[in-house]
Write a structure and sequence with these properties.
Layout lengths: L2 H20 L1 H12 L13 H7 L7 H18 L7 H19 L27 H16 L6 H37 L6 E6 L6 E8 L2 E8 L10 E4 L12 H10 L3 E6 L2 E11 L10 E6 L13
Antiparallel strand pairs: 1-2, 2-3, 3-4, 5-6, 6-7
Helix pairs in contact: 1-2, 1-6, 1-7, 2-5, 3-8, 4-5, 6-7
Length: about 325
């Protein structure tokens, strides 16, 4: 999820843990702990673009990192707030839960997280919620803002953190239900339209959870389309994009290409724009693809001019 959502969720969890004992300092600890896995952004200062793509949500989003950083935060907080009556084990439980929540909900996006790094490079992606979804984020953000201004002693604080955490959790559950519905519909439609595939995924289009982006295909190419939960017709107007692997022959031994293929989880196509080879990662959709089926893909990488890829993440 986006950084603001993580900060707000962590602050609400901090309020639950020790708001009555530590006041708003507990919210600050929660916000800091919830944000610490995203420290991997520092790698962008020295890594090239393709390496940075794999570093992001890599080791710092792993179970091992969670196990290492949790006791460090717990020891620091326990010493910082002495004297107090909070056991070290409770500090450990709190920080472990907050940091785990970060790497857990990030797995529901399509970017993928390296839970098992460095032992396995497998990326976990449930593809159930867009990376920035205001319907998920608004509740903890609103609760966090109110908690900052409410007095420490008021009973209303519990009402707000409860709302911030439970409504967002309920929305995430709704997203999972929507995912199951869409997957059921799409698989039936693929069979009905006689589209064969060896790889397949669905993921929400930007900023909501009712319109879904669909990709199905194999090593030859991919069928790309959209499906809404409100669509009555059992059909999808797919558009086919050939994979064009043969275009990669001149650069097949380049390290950045191998990293990109690994990052894309094999969901990629190659195009030639004038004299330049372009690598498309299909997982991130197209620029308003539901309006223009032949629109450019959001994620594209210039294979022969890597210096032009510095803004690829922002794009």
């Amino acid at each position: 999820m986006d950084s603001i959502t993580h900060l707000a969720l962590g602050a609400c969890m901090g309020e639950v843990f020790a708001g009555k004992k530590l006041g708003k300092k507990a919210m600050l600890w929660g916000a800091m702990a919830q944000s610490v896995p995203d420290i991997d952004f520092i790698a962008s200062f020295w890594m090239d673009t393709s390496s940075n793509l794999l570093a992001h949500r890599g080791f710092t989003h792993s179970f091992l990192f969670c196990a290492i950083i949790t006791p460090l935060f717990a020891l620091l907080a326990e010493r910082w707030h002495r004297p107090h009556n909070i056991k070290l084990s409770k500090w450990m439980l709190f920080f472990g839960a907050v940091i785990f929540t970060h790497i857990f909900i990030d797995a529901f996006n399509n970017y993928g997280v390296g839970w098992f790094e460095p032992f396995s490079h497998q990326r976990i992606s449930f593809n159930a919620i867009y990376v920035a979804d205001p319907f998920f984020s608004i509740w903890p953000v609103m609760a966090c803002i109110v908690l900052i201004y409410l007095k420490r002693s008021t009973s209303k604080r519990k009402r707000w953190w409860l709302m911030g955490l439970t409504v967002s959790s309920a929305y995430l559950l709704l997203c999972m239900i929507n995912k199951i519905r869409i997957d059921t519909d799409v698989k039936n439609i693929l069979q009905k339209q006689q589209i064969s595939y060896t790889r397949y995924f669905t993921t929400p289009a930007p900023l909501q959870n009712w319109l879904w982006y669909v990709v199905a295909g194999d090593d030859n190419g991919y069928h790309v389309g959209f499906r809404s939960l409100f669509d009555a017709k059992k059909e999808i107007n797919f558009h086919y994009f050939p994979r064009n692997d043969s275009l990669l022959n001149p650069v097949h031994d380049h390290e950045d290409l191998q990293r990109l293929i690994r990052f894309s989880q094999q969901f990629y196509t190659v195009e030639k724009w004038n004299d330049t080879l372009v690598f498309n990662d299909l997982r991130f959709g197209q620029v308003i693809g539901w309006q223009n089926p032949r629109a450019k893909f959001v994620f594209y990488y210039f294979l022969q001019h890597p210096e032009d890829n510095t803004l690829i993440v922002q794009r």
